[in-house]
Design a protein that fits this description.
Layout (H helix, E strand, L loop, with lengths): L1 H8 L19 H6 L1 E8 L6 H9 L12 H6 L5 E9 L2 E9 L13 H20 L13 E6 L8 H10 L5 E5 L7 H17 L16 H13 L2 E2 L6 E4 L2 E8 L2 E4 L8 H10 L1 H22 L15 H46 L1
Parallel strand pairs: 1-3, 1-4, 4-5, 5-6
Antiparallel strand pairs: 2-3, 7-8, 8-9
Helix pairs in contact: 8-9, 9-10
Guanosine-5'-diphosphate (GDP) binds next to helix 3.
């Protein structure tokens, strides 16, 4: 049993392979050709290992010019929103990944202050999408909406702190929250187990909606069903991040070296890193669909409720590409028809003019 579990969640190939090359199975080929757009937000107290984890997840250095502020600067600083976009290509599949970091979260003395810019950012992306979608040029709308939010929980607290709960409650109807326990190497296996249970109980008691992995279809592959079951039972994912590659028994592994041994990021016996990455990669499309169908629709509904004008969207992301292409073809045909009508009218007018000119010339002659 332990063996099969390990096989399912070992790093799929050699180091340097993230695994999003299987995205074509999830999305229409055309969108793959254009590139797949995904936005991940990471939120949590500073120092919990957010940047390290993101770099480990996508094997890139998303923060090359990062400056860590001093404690004094942190007190003054409000939360900042840093969006970094990278294009990663794997076997011809392009992923345009935007990672939205929120440095300064939890640093300010009044933690509720730091929610505001984050909520504003999420809403701004909805608004932008809404405007683009109701506009004329809908062929290449960039989807910058936040599709997923990894919320980092401090491993040393005894469960969620009041500001964790307050933040999740403030955004759970706007974004797919995936809770993660940071720096899981600082906890024993039993502590991880207890903390996970505690967090899930608190989430339940406080009525927080976190992202729930979709149920499998009954005719789904048995391996896939098993994988989904294991991913579901790993929530909240207990993760470890590291940007160093260490040699262990002549194997090169991403890990953290301690006097007593090495913790391996990609070893499923050590933490849930691979499970978190598998969840993200295999559910990118579902995360986008939930964003579109639930969170974005919520946003639109709220605008309507407030009496703000909302144009009817002319086609949504859930439409298939062929639906969208048909709509565009119809529009093009309509434009062509109008151009033909215009040309016909112009021709008729110049014909009339010519006749009138001919008449007046004839009159000149008779006079
Ligand atoms: P951020 O402020 O949340 O982005 O945190 P950083 O990624 O900058 O990490 C802060 C510190 O924690 C750095 O010294 C990292 O090396 C260390 N760190 C990152 N991930 C882990 C982890 O999983 N376990 C442990 N023990 N330390 C970590």
């Amino acid at each position: 049993m332990a063996d099969s579990r390990q096989r399912q969640f070992t790093n799929p190939e050699q180091p340097g392979y993230v695994g999003f090359a299987n995205l074509p199975n999830q999305v229409h080929r055309k969108s793959v050709k254009r590139g797949f757009e995904f936005t991940l937000m990471v939120v949590g107290e500073s120092g919990l290992g957010k940047s390290t984890l993101v770099n480990s997840l996508f094997l890139t250095d998303l923060y090359p010019d990062r400056v860590i502020p001093s404690a004094l600067e942190k007190i003054k600083q409000t939360v900042r929103i840093d969006a970094s976009t990278v294009e990663i290509e794997e076997r011809g599949v392009k992923l345009r990944l935007t990672v939205v970091d929120t440095p300064g979260f939890g640093d300010s003395l009044n933690s509720a202050d730091c929610f505001i810019p984050i909520i504003q950012y999420i809403d701004d992306q909805f608004e932008r999408f809404l405007n683009d979608e109701s506009g004329l040029n809908r062929r290449h709308i960039t989807d910058n909406r936040v599709h997923c939010c990894f919320y980092f929980v401090n491993p040393s607290g005894h469960g969620l702190k009041p500001h964790d709960i307050a933040f999740m409650r403030a955004v759970h109807h706007k974004v797919n929250i995936v809770p993660v326990i940071a720096k899981a190497d600082t906890l024993t296996k039993q502590e991880v187990f207890n903390l996970k249970r505690k967090i899930l109980d608190q989430i339940d008691e406080c009525g927080i909606n976190i992202y729930s992995l979709p149920d499998c279809e009954s005719d789904e592959d048995e391996d896939f069903k098993e994988q989904s079951k294991q991913l579901r039972s790993a929530v909240p994912f207990a993760v470890i991040g590291a940007n160093t590659v260490i040699e262990v028994k002549s194997r090169k592994v991403r890990g953290r070296m301690y006097p007593w041994g090495v913790v391996e990021v990609e070893n499923p016996e050590h933490c849930d890193f691979i499970k978190l990455r598998t969840m993200l990669i295999t559910h990118m499309q579902d995360l986008q669909e939930v964003t579109q169908e639930i969170h974005y629709e919520n946003y639109r509904a709220q605008k309507i409720e407030k009496g703000e004008p909302v144009k009817k969207p002319r086609g949504t992301l859930t439409q298939t590409d062929s639906d969208r292409e048909k709509e565009l073809r119809d529009k093009d045909a309509e434009i062509q028809r109008m151009q033909q009508m215009l040309a016909k009218m112009q021709a008729e007018m110049s014909q009339q003019k010519a006749v009138q000119n001919g008449d007046s010339k004839a009159q000149d002659v008779t006079v």
